[in-house]
Structure formats: C-alpha cells, structure tokens
User: Fold this.
Amino acid sequence: MPPLAYASYHSTRKFLTSQTITLQPSDTNTSFQVHEHLLLSISPVLLAAISREWKEKTKRRYKFGEDMTEELLLHFLMWAYGGSYPDTNGNKTVEVKYMSFETWLNAQKRKPLKKDSMVKRPEREVSGMPVKVHVDGQVEEPANDKQKAEQSGEGSENLHPLLLHAKLYVFAEMYMIEPLKKLSMEKLIVQLHGLGSLAEDHERAAVSDVLTFAFSSRVPENDVLLHWLARYASWMLDELRQMPSSFDKLLLQTD
Assistant:
C-alpha cells in the first residue's frame, strides 16, 4: 500500500484513528509515534516483526537494532505520512522514473564539457598556500579546513544523501515496502547522475561508501539496484581507484 499522503478518505480516517506504536531508533532514546493501521498498510512484515519483539508490551514500545538510526527512522516516517522524504540537506531531489544504466550512460556521453574559467598560469602563493587566478584577475583562495570538512561531509552528523537513499532502499527491501524501495532507488540514481565524473575526493568517497554498503547488505544478488551499481562501478573504475583504501574495501565486498 502507498503512504498516507495517497490514501483515500476512509483509509486515512482508519489510519489516524488507530492506536499508536512507539518506535525508538538504535542510537537515541527519542520516541516516535506511528499509527498501527498505517504501518500495517505499508508493511505487514515490519509490523509483525515489531509486534513479536515489543520492548515493553504494555506500552507498545519497540527499539530498533543498530541499523536503524534516528535519522533513518525519521526519514522513513516522513515518507510514511507525507509520501516522500527530503535529503539530509533539507532539499528534495528531483523525482524521476527509473533510469536504466544505458540511459544514464548515454546522458553522461551527451554532457557538454565544462568550460574552465581558469587560465593556465603558474600558481602563486598567498599566505603560503597555492591559489588559482581567474581570467578576470580574481584570486580564488584555498578552502580552509572547515570548508573542506563541510564539502566532504566530515564532522557532520547527517548521512550523505547518497548513503541515506541506499540505506532506505535496503530497509525497504528487507520489509517489502515496494513504493519506498522504488523512490529511494530513483533518488539515488538521480544524484549519481548529477555527480557526473566524480572529479572531487569527497564525491568519490561518498560513492565508495554507497557501493561498499550496498554490496555488503542482505539485498539479493540479483537485485536490480545492485546490478545497476555494479555497472556504474565498472564505468567509474578509474575514478574509484584514486582512493586506494576505499577501493580495496569495496573489492573485499564484491569478491
């Protein structure tokens, strides 16, 4: 069944007048309330698993294992009630229909080369660090440690959007939630499409994390997303090899 946002009037009334269940993520004691009939509609498998292992039967409380963090649980509930979920940066990705690998590959080949606004001049030093000089004479200062951390995602408590989509996909696969599985796959592919050639280290790191997680998950080997990611990794092999430690870790998962 689809989430609450697409339910009929009578189904909505049934969902919202049902008893609530308290769900707690693995990493905090924050309590989230979800309507039992809504959860039953979305995933009878998940509700059955929860009901078998109440933490407190009289209080209808369930605490997830280590794979379900607060961030992941909250995004699942946002989808369950709203029909979609935002990325960790608060912006919704463009939702499209499934993009086959061939379609993605053709789109990559059609992308125009980015015009480089930098002239090839010797780099000069500013404050002991190399900088680049633009055609108009402006100096591009090097990023400081804080800016680099923000660009790479280091120091942030939020999941990278790519990894968020991948984890929601695996969660949806585990509990047979097909609409969420479809949406998270679409979001993941759209964002990979947007990254293009993985020119930056933080982009390569994010993609490596997603690939490592996906291929170490309990998703069946014949899964459509795993097949898509395997072909994507093959196409991006040279870029991924630029991060030897992450690449070696990925190889261990795919052996």
